[in-house]
Design brief:
- The complex is a heterodimer of chains A (171) and B (452).
- Chain A is of the alpha+beta class and 171 residues long.
- The N and C termini of chain A lie far apart (89 Å).
- Chain B has 16 helices and 5 strands.
- In chain B, helix 2 packs antiparallel against helix 3 and helix 13 packs across helix 14.
- In chain B, strands 1-2-3 form a 3-stranded antiparallel sheet, with no helix packed on it.
- By secondary structure, chain B is mainly α.
- At the A-B interface, helix 1 of A face helix 1, helix 2, helix 4, helix 7 and helix 14 of B.
Chain lengths: 171, 452
Amino acid sequence: MSELALFLLRIGLVAVLWIFVFSIISVIRSDLFGQKVAGKAAASNATQVVSQAHLPNPPTGPVRVLQESNSPSSKTATRLVIIAGENAGRELPLDGRELHIGRAVNSDLVITDEYASTQHAKLVLINDEWLVQDLNSTNGTFLGGVRVGIPAVVKLNTPVKVGKTVFELRA
Amino acid sequence: MSNNVTERISKIVRVVPRNRNTELVLLLFAIGINALEVVQVQLSTMQKVNGDFWFYWGGLAGAAMLLHLVLRLRAPLADPMILPIATTLNGLGIAEIYRLDIAAIANHQTELFGEKQVIWTLVALLLAGIVVMFIPSHLVLRRYVFIAGAIGVGLLLAPMLPFIGKTINGASLWLSIGGLTFQPGELAKISLTIFFAGYLVQRRDSLAMTGRTVLGIQIPKARELGPILAIWVVSLLVLVVQHDLGTSLLFFGLFLVMIYTATGRAIYTVVGLGMFLTGALVASRAISYVSKRFDAWLNPFDDAHYNAIGGSYQLVQGLFGFAHGGLLGTGLGGGVPQLVPLAESDFIVASLAEELGLAGIFVIFALYILLVARGLRIGFNHNDDFSKLLATGLSFVIALQVFIVIGGVTRLVPLTGLTTPLLAAGGSSLVANWIIVGLLLRISDTNRKEAE
């Protein structure tokens, strides 16, 4: 084996190793840009199907029709008003979708005090009534001062306490 | 319910698993590089290519292709880059160990590592394949969190057992059963990572949010520091009884990384590092072997340390190797890496640096960075905390090993006896690291299924 061939082999190996590294980097790059579109499309599909499957009552149709009746239930609630805690005074519109409450950043209502759990509670609209369900939180969810065990109906203007935050549903 | 929905969607959208084809291309590239390495070793040491080529190249190449097929069948959406990167690193290791064997034969030494390394590679890839095939989802592991913890501590402390525990070069890390030696600590990394992930998911709320605020820093409650103290004691026990600074640093570092990932509170890292440094400083004064390591690290070129038994001779020879390699290296088979003691295991990075040069060693660093980055990315893509923590922990097992070993060889930190993942000679280490690769592949498959 001539010296020149060995030299070329030696340089060649290092060069090929670098080409390998850069081909991996280029795959990562195309993965990032190529997949974003496909991923988003699939994700939006998924949320639509899932939310339709999960929601007992889509916000259109029956809800509007029944809204005129005079029952004391909470179906007429259109907003969630925070009355105590860090975000006191803020409001959230209610559109019939379920609402997650907790410290997790993807919650609909993010509560950042140390007495709230990551997935603390959720509000669900079932049979035209808003129910609050405690998601096994450490410090509990209180509806009108009573700790919520099984999911309970939230009447209008009744304080719900999660951690240090208190909110009410209002028409 | 939601599973059915996602299944339906993936049928409708009919996502083509582009991943596996990408992986095949990269894997063929990696296998080609491995062939080039073995050929170069043979040409520069024997001036010809002989039949051994098939053994040293074909073993890994065939096993990696088989693992690729397993992935096509059982984990079609797994990350496409992990397997090629791991194969490249393993192949580089085999080529260098084979090259050191040739030098050893020329020196009439009888202790050879190449054949064992190839056979262990096959075993390791088989186990990685089993992980991918028979663990349907990594979430299953969550059921066995405390069992994993018990197994992990058991494995870690097993070498202290009488009769089967074995001490080699001053460190009591081995189990010896019927002539076969094994380092149980290597497998302990995996089960302890599973344990930490499961445990921290349960405790993260109280770890992250409780405590009083003093001068703008939230001080954790005393009882939350209990587990950190326990891990600290175990890792110091490993340091004092088993004489292994590296393993003890690895476990404690892993725990700190995971607790930081789980809680996002720097205070745990600061307190933990402080505790470890205090422990290590006290140990360096009190235990002779640690203080020797420290002296060899700080003054390696001092004659007293250079000539001492267990002194800085090995470290300095390794540094000479780096220097001899220069920018482009001597080429595989062109240098004299066999002059460094343990050139095939602890100092394989120095051997490779000598023969591939700065340009080559940076490829190795880049491959490790990419491997760890993929692992972190896999964790990041998951929605649940257990998967996030598990993937982060497993990646950091690799990252910390690389840092501790290569840092030691290049004199950034005191030299400790860990193995370079996937490169160094040693069955236990290969098996453990390939199982980590298998787990990362499994986690990434589940995760892409969720996303699509």
